[in-house]
Amino acid sequence: MTRTLLGVWAHPDDETFLSSGLILAARERGDRVVLVTATRGEHGTDDPGRWPPGRLGRLRERELEAALAVLGVDEHRFLGYGDGSCAHAAEPLAARAIATVIEEVRPDTIVTFGPDGVTGHDDHRAVGRWTTRARHRVAPQVELLRAVLAPGFTRRFAAVNEAFGVFMDDPADDVDPGLHLRLEGAQLDRKIEAMLAQDSQTRRLVDGVGLATFRRWWGEEAFLVDRPVAASAAAAV
Ligand SMILES: [Zn+2]
């Protein structure tokens, strides 16, 4: 039976960094994958003079399309929030928008950010909260995966994490993920290809650490697993 995976993320590239392995495995099984991105990531640059928001947003939309083509995903939609604005948005409305997608798509599994947003980014934390709330309200019977860092990530990649400032807080990698993927071979090749398709976000990282380290850096994915809750039990909460 075909299953459906729904991913809900904050910026173009979050889906690729954090869930390519999950997506590729789903597509290899013939499952449906639908992705939602809250913003166009239009402020994701160190050079806003050269890349004003409108221009960068359009570029990131094209880069995302290219990455999703590599991952075999052809169903995607934006929620239309401004990059950097998610923590200030009305949470009930945002959760409602996601709940509407859940009701339409009827996923078997939902994937989003864990509580610390993985990198500590406020948009990530907000989208994780919205999605968790939406799932609790309209689909508690659906499995929820919440992305976290793989065990040992902080220790193994302390030098590169520090050098590139990807993480806003000290990243937490001390939770025991219920699901831990180690990508290798063709699957890791595809993930890296999808990451490289989002050149505006990954170029400086790849150039900085070299491709071999970059592959190890992002070669694992980990998720907290919130098991389905029977609808009657959820209603009692
Ligand atoms: Zn992001």
Automatic annotation (TrEMBL):
It comes from the Bacteria. The keyword Hydrolase applies. The keyword Hydrolase applies. Keywords: Hydrolase, Zinc. One of its GO terms (molecular function) is hydrolase activity. SUPFAM superfamilies: LmbE-like. Its EC number is 3.5.1.-. Pfam families: PIG-L (PF02585). This is PIG-L family deacetylase.
